[in-house]
Design goal:
alpha/beta; TIM Barrel; nine-stranded mixed sheet; eight-stranded parallel sheet; 14 helices; 17 strands; globular; binds zinc ion; Metal-dep_hydrolase_composite; D-hydantoinase; Amidohydro-rel; hydrolase activity, acting on carbon-nitrogen (but not peptide) bonds, in cyclic amides; Metal_Hydrolase
Amino acid sequence: MTHDLVISNGTVVTPEHGTFEADVAADGETISAIAAPGTLSGETEIDATGKHVLPGAIDPHTHHGIYRGLEADAESESKSDLVGGVTTIGNYFRRAGAYEEIMPGYFDEAEPNYYHDYFFSLGLLSMEHVEEIPAIIEEFGITTFKWYMNYKDAAREKFGVDCDMHDDFGDAFIRKLAEQDVPTTLGYHSENVEITNALAGGNVYVTSESDDTDADADADEGYEVMVEEFPGYAETQSMVAGAALAKVHGYDDRFYAVHISAGGTADELAALHDAGYRAWGETCIHYLALTTEECDERMKVNPPVRSKADQETLWERLADGTISTIGTDHCANLAENKFGEGIRDSLLGFPSTPVMLPLILSEGVNEGRISLERAVEVTSTNAAKAFNCYPKKGTVRVGSDADLVVVDLDETKTVTPELLHSVSGYSPYEGRDVTGWPTQTVVKGELAYDDGEIVGTKGHGTHIDRPV
Ligand SMILES: [Zn+2]
């Protein structure tokens, strides 16, 4: 029979079944056959001779809609993601008010515009939000949430809610999640904000275009002030405290520390694992690919990019299984808005989803730090598991969604915003030579990126209602 699409003669990489030569066929949106090389035929055929076929990458940590509105980001960012082999993203969204009333409008903005699938994770900001958890799961298929320790004392002012986000709030939050019948996940922003606020001395870090900058902002300050005022130990201590609270409620297996930036945090997570905790750890690609010395306003983000020693520890902890997933904290802020007078006056966040997989292939696999199988686990399979969409996503097997990426491990390209089809007009990695790029990206059976060209369809992506 002729299949809708066949990727032939490639080396398929799966964490479950290892690495093997095969043809992979898709019919409709799902993988329909995996067979000996050269045995399947399709309406559309992609020759993957000499290349690897991986499950589409998943970026579980993005902030679409945070600066430009979701409609615009959904279209431009999901298109750009295809260049980097990303076929699913998780979008963190937070707003005061009843999510049952807010989300329908937000789905309306997302659904017609995504080139690939996506899921929402909701920041809970108030006790009312905690009470809404069962309805959010039931009505919207959203099972993943976030607790922001950095807004502990700022929730009233920043979000206009009538409670603080102190530990009593987190306690109620975790207990409510642990009560649910379906698997849920708690993303946790680790930061002891009493320490970071004291170190920052009341200096304002611009987090949105409407925030006022601090009058004392000094244009001569460099990136190091971010590292001094957001030290690694403030992240480490907070992560351990959060994991401990989850553990006492029997919820540590669904506790997920987002964007681990400090080597010390990864080491303490390993110690928790040794002590019987099952907590998840995520790092972001910038903590693996950059060091403080290389950074300027373009890389402004919280937590900040740290030292070479931190970076080396994160790679080791990624290789040894302590850190399970990689995200990006991607924000689509435009160059004209991002850059201010010096570090304090610049916007937080930057775009990087499309470079996530290429940088892991280049700096991880090609530099011998992790195996290709481990790269697939940390860029796809584990995120699917942590965010409750496995095995629909995150693997190459019959019946799973046909989200596939063909990569050439030997191809070197220099990063430019144009290469990434980026609307932001800058990349923190601009000018860097990266070896290991997708040549084709397939989204739910449809060829969506082909050798430099975006050929996918806007609206082909949809929200992944969980549990799957
Ligand atoms: Zn984030």
